[in-house]
Structures are given as structure tokens and as C-alpha cells.
Amino acid sequence: MSERRPYRRPMPSNWWWAPGPYRAYTIRELTGVAIVIYGAVLLAGLISLASGPSSYAGFLAFLKSPFSLLLHLVLLAAVVYHVKTWFETLPKTQPKIIVDGKPVPAEQITKYATMVAAGCSLALILLVMGVAR
Amino acid sequence: MPDAALAAKTVELRILRYRPASDERPSYESFHVPYSQEMSVLEALQSIKDTLDGSLSFRWSCRMAVCGSCGMMINGKPQLACSTFLRNLPPGPVTLEPLNNFPIERDLVVTVGDFVKKIESIYPYIIPKVPRTIEEGAYLQTPAQMAAYESFSDCINCMLCYAACPQFGENPDFIGPGAMALLQRYNGDSRDGGQRLRLDQIHGENGVWSCTAVGYCSEVCPKQVDPANAVNQNKTNSAFDFFLSFVRKA
Question: For residue B46, how far is the Cα from the chain centroid?
């Protein structure tokens, strides 16, 4: 007679906070929320701009407040971390790039993509500064 | 021989044991085995089975990270017992458990039936675009065409990636990283024309969209297959096919 009685161990409900790769994953995903919040701040700015000068002045006053400065520091840190992990994940989401009959290593894809993104961001900042002058 | 050399160094292995005929649930049992610099975790297990407890069950075959049989949780991380050496583990007891996310058959042996069914479900063979006769000769391929899928063909079916995947832990029906790597091995082959047949496994309910890109599967892979890449590039294929379906209908 068969003695088979497979035992399935339950998945711990807090697996997503287990130290190591799962916690790193959870933090990576949570930092995506920072991008949403930052987008919301920009949207609030646009709405107040459309609502007239006094409303926009209020928004600018909010930006200068200590709370806003602290919020932006936290958001910046979270977004930088998210950008780093985003580009580390990028090579996993695309077909292999074959150059001279060999696949381009993931680290190189991450490096070049990050450089292009940094270049675009810099160009955008310079453009905005030029327009604002 | 000096006394110090006689007092051989030992290592403690804490093993999660489960004997379905007598145990209600798994529990840990400790064994002390003589330690040597060259000893792998698999050799330590064999030493226990040979000298301390012949009933200890674990799978193994090649001893050289080729067969994929001896995958287990070593100090909580999915690894091959044959290619993990005691000298590289932190001092103190070594905890050995069967692979996470799989039902335990006995001691360190897990059920593999569902995994084999998943492998079978992805048509794991080349379906030629245009069948050739023997007289017409072999199906040719350039080195660059081979490079597009070659790493995915290195999979040894050790299932470490499944033990690393929390989404598979939550949903055992998820097709999972290993089967998707094998699927990409064939879908990415320039000689293959079976992509449409394999689409159901990609974008079905338990297909690639169950993956949340944790990425740990690729980290634990002993053959650098990068199954996370196979899963995630098929998300692109699945999305592309979804939009193409409107064009086809129109």
C-alpha cells in the first residue's frame, strides 16, 4: 500500500517582508508609489496654475514650506532608488540583443540605458532652465 | 598523531524531516557529521545516510550540477546540494529543507509531477516552420540565431527557480520560470514555427502575467539561464499579440 501523503507547507503571510531578496523587491515596488505622489504634486501645481495667480502663489508657498522640502527629499531618494532598480530590471524585460553573434550582457544594457536616461534628463533640465530665464 | 588532529571537526546539519507513514507534519532533526574542506552538502547527506540514519531520503545523481536532482533549501536559499560546499557556508548549524513551494513527499524529496506537466504543456520540441525531408538536408542556423536562445537551453530542470518564486508559492498553477525558459528556448529558435501553439500557456490565466518581476528566480539559477528574462519578454509578446488581435479581426 502506498504511504504517500504529500505535505504542503503553508506560505508565510509575511513573505514579502522576509529579509533579503523579497524585502528588496517590496521596497522596489513601494518606491513606485513615490513617483505617483510626485506626479500628484506636479498635477496640483498645474491645476493651481490654471485656477489663477493667487492659487498658484499658494502652491509656490506650499513648495517652500519645510514639510514640502522634506517630502521632496524623501521622494527624490525613493525615485533615485526606483530608477536604479528599474534599469537593473530592464534587461530582463526585453529580447536578447545580439551583437557580432553574441548576446549583450545585462550589465551593459543597464549601463547604456541609464546613461541615455541621464542624458535626456540633463537635456530636459537645461531646456527648462533656458526657457525660464 | 596529536590529539588535536584526532578530535576531528564536525558539522551540524539541521534537516527538516517528514515520514508520511509516521509523522503528522515535518520537524527538524540534527545530525553531526565529520567535516572536511572538500565536503559538499550532498556528501554530508550521503555520510548521514551511510553511517547514521539509512532512512534519510534525498534525491541525487550526477554530483556535478548537471542532473538537477539535488535542489534543496540550504540555510533558506534554494541551491544544489552537490555544488554547495560546507566551507562556503557561515559557521554554525546548516539548515536543510526540501524546496519551498512544493509538496513534500518525504524528507528532502518533493513532488515534481505538476512541474513535469507544465514542461509537457509548452510543446518542448522544435515544430519546423517548413518541414524538410532527409534529402533536403539539415535545418541550418547561424551562430547569432543560436545565441538568441542558447542560454535558455541550459536549464537542468532543478526547480530552484520555482522555490525562489513567491508568486508560484501563492499560486501553484502559475506556469512559472522554468517552463517559461524552456518555452523561450523553442520560441526563440529560428528553426521553430510553434509560437502560436504556445501562446495559450503564455497569456492564459496562469501564464506570464502572474509574474511580478521579483527576479529572484534568475539569481538562484545554477546555470545562469535567466528565467526571469524568458517570463518578462513573453509579457511583451503577449501584449503585442493582444493588440495584433484587433488588427487581425479588422
Answer: 22
CATH code for the domain in which residue A42 is found: 1.20.1300.10
Tell which residue, B214, B191, B220, B186, has the closest CA to residue B202.
B186
User: What is the predicted pLDDT for the residue at B35?
Assistant: 94
- pLDDT surpassing 60 at residue B80: yes
pTM over 0.95: no
Class of domain B113-249: mainly alpha
Q: Which residues of chain A does B144 touch, with a Cβ-Cβ cutoff of 8 Å?
A: 98, 100-101
Residues in contact with B49: Cβ distance below 8 Å, sequence separation at least 6, in sequence order:
B56, B58
Contact A17, A23 (CB under 8 A): yes
Question: What residue of B is the nearest CA neighbor of A11?
Answer: B169
| Residue that the C-alpha cell 514579502 belongs to | A16
The ipTM, to two decimals, is 0.88
CA distance B102 to B72: 11
pLDDT in tens, A78-111: 999 999 999 999 999 888 898 988 889 999 999 9
Domain coordinates in residue numbering, chain B: 3-110, 113-249
**Are A109 and A116 contacting, i.e. CB atoms less than 8 angstroms apart?**
no
- CA-based nearest residue in chain A for residue B230: A92
Pick from B99, B104, B170 the residue to mutate for testing the A interface (most A CBs within 10 Å).
Answer: B104
Residue B34 C-alpha, separation from nearest chain A C-alpha, in angstroms? 31
SS3 content of chain B, % helix, strand, coil (to 5): 40, 15, 45
**Does residue B27 register a pLDDT over 50?**
yes
B3-110, what's its fold?
Ubiquitin-like (UB roll) (3.10.20)
The verdict on a CB contact (< 8 Å) between A95 and B188 is: yes
Cα–Cα dist B169/B32, whole Å: 32
Q: Which helix or strand (DSSP H or E) is residue B97 part of?
A: strand B94-97
Interface test with B, best of A5, A22, A102, A110 (most B CBs within 10 A): A5
Give the tens place of pLDDT for each residue, A32-84: 999 999 999 999 999 999 999 999 999 999 999 999 999 999 999 999 999 99
